[in-house]
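Exercise 7b. Backbone tokens:
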């Protein structure tokens, strides 16, 4: 089973969400992480985790799209592969999009994120034409101001596109998020029952329903 955090725009929170999904969903299925991000943020965080005496995640890297395709061919419902794709358009990232059982795309309410989402929709349209099926991604609001309650134009854009489905979970700006990653932990491991933990668990529950592991 393959779950990919995907967006051609960087800095939207793909790595942080992938990390916390891996930690929480590992209670349900064996999880491995594919780090396609050129910054290798999750690889570094995993090394910190190991240095802190915690059990590291299985971390995979591939030199090219052919190697990734070979891994995808061995995909099984008995394991969950979480792919952290880079913030750019590439053969690597397009392959991950097409191969995934579930796509998640984080966005904020900022104007530049709406522009980025419009560009990403063009990529999904192109891949849909090639695959001869409609490829959809699940859009999750991430890193929002805790006081914000209305999301503006981006909701209208998401709801009108056949390539986007808006998730009900919302992730807000929380100090615990940055602090937990800095010590190689998930939010749950860092501060259980915090607001950030409750938000991520709601997201995980939504993911469980979508991929059928409830």
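Sequence design result:
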């Amino acid at each position: 089973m393959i779950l990919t955090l995907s967006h051609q725009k960087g800095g939207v929170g793909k790595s942080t969400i992938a990390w916390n999904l891996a930690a929480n969903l590992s209670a349900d299925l064996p999880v491995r992480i594919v780090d396609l991000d050129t910054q290798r943020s999750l690889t570094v965080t995993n090394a910190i985790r190991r240095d802190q005496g915690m059990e590291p995640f299985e971390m995979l890297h591939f030199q090219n799209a052919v190697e990734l395709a070979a891994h995808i061919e061995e995909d099984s419902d008995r394991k969950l592969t979480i792919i952290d794709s880079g913030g750019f358009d590439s053969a690597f990232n397009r392959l991950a999009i097409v191969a995934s059982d579930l796509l998640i795309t984080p966005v904020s309410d900022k104007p530049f994120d709406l522009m980025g989402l419009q560009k990403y929709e063009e990529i999904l349209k192109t891949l849909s034409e090639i695959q001869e099926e409609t490829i959809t991604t699940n859009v999750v609001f991430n890193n929002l101001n805790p006081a914000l309650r209305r999301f503006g134009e981006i909701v209208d854009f998401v709801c009108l596109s056949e390539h986007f489905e808006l998730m009900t979970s919302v992730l807000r700006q929380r100090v615990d998020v940055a602090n937990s990653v800095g010590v190689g932990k998930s939010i749950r491991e860092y501060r259980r029952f915090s607001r950030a933990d409750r938000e991520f668990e709601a997201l995980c529950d939504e993911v469980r329903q979508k991929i059928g592991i409830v």
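Instructor comment: The beta strands are 2-5, 31-35, 58-60, 80-84, 102-107, 137-144, 164-172. The chain has one domain: 2-211.
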